[in-house]
Amino acid sequence: MTSSEVAVTGLGLVTAGGIGVEATWRTLCAGLSTARRDPGLAGLPVDISCRVPGFAPDAILGRRLARRMDRSAQMTVVAAREALADAALDPGTWDPTRVGVVIGAGGPSMESLLTCMERLLTDRVTAISPAGLPRSLPNTAATEVGLDLGAQGTNFAPAAGCASGATALGVARDLLRAGTLDIVFAGGVDIMCNPLTAAGFAQLGALSTHPGDPAHACRPFDAERDGFVLGEGVGVVVLERPEHARARRARVRSLLSGYGAANDAHHLTAPHPDGRGARLATLAALADAGWNPADVDHVNTHGTGTRLNDAAEARFLAATFDRCPPITAVKSVLGHTGGAGGAIEAIVTVLTLEHGSIPPTANHHRTDPDLDPDLDVVAKTPRRPARLNTAISTSVAFGGQNAVLAFRTATSGAPS
Prior knowledge:
Largest sheet: 13 strands, mixed
Helix content: 25-40%
Number of strands: 13
Distance between the termini: 13 Å
Number of helices: 14
């Protein structure tokens, strides 16, 4: 690995595809959406979502610890513990001041915030738990991970909308490069399946209103796409300085080679029609990695399934690559997980490189003819290209926020 790269040594996931990395990967490779009718959204204009199945925090964390946290923090601690075990790290042997936590969040924890507001509006001020406000803060999930691991280094929660998870990995990479820390637990969390978020995105016209089976609703880059499906989840990655990983003979699952961020400076909610910021962020990530566009073997797209986002992404890909690499959009399976999306998709990108196989985009039947004719959407079944050593993961957010991460396999040489 080069001196500018950092090692990915641990992965942890809690998604609608399942609890754990392997469960989520199997679901993605099956190419079937997890979207279902959601009783918690009954009566709203859109009542479908992608929820985590079978999540039992009391059984996983113990009743006392689980009751201290809300759902977002519970899931984040579970994912961080999986990443810790995957990295074969022992908190008893590390210097805790050299271990950091950077967990992006798209906003406050809506579950706790809505509970507090409901009690306030019904004049039951004394019914508001003293823990209600602390639980709702955007940095609480990161704080709980730090408490659980005993990590005493930098701990905070970047907020960049739906690019928060990817931004967290980029910031963590910078902390490692600067020598500030040896290990960072980086990722993103969001629980989008709540009435306020559902009502707000429905008013914006961003949610799919597919009238049939909810599993067929989200269809990125397809001619019949009409929006995304709300999801929930967490992705946590262990990143290490190369020297630290080598010294402890860690298994390196992938290398984070580059990171780029840019803003559209165009609109509060709509992406720039040409994906200007996404292209700038991609070029910055490639320059950071020392790659050319032709070095990229695969793109894990933001791929929400909205008319505007997919069109903007297709245009920026066409402008960036002479011929578009094969792409996928995992939100078609797992739903849109907001601030967690960039971290979850970064992990999927690592798994794609590790397995040499690109998971398919669910519900993709016919690419929109108004998009670039060279757009190569992997659909129906996984694809195993002859060359799959490098990949980028792109994230786009309200306010024109864009973050792009570049990964390569740990066994391949850096592109020249």
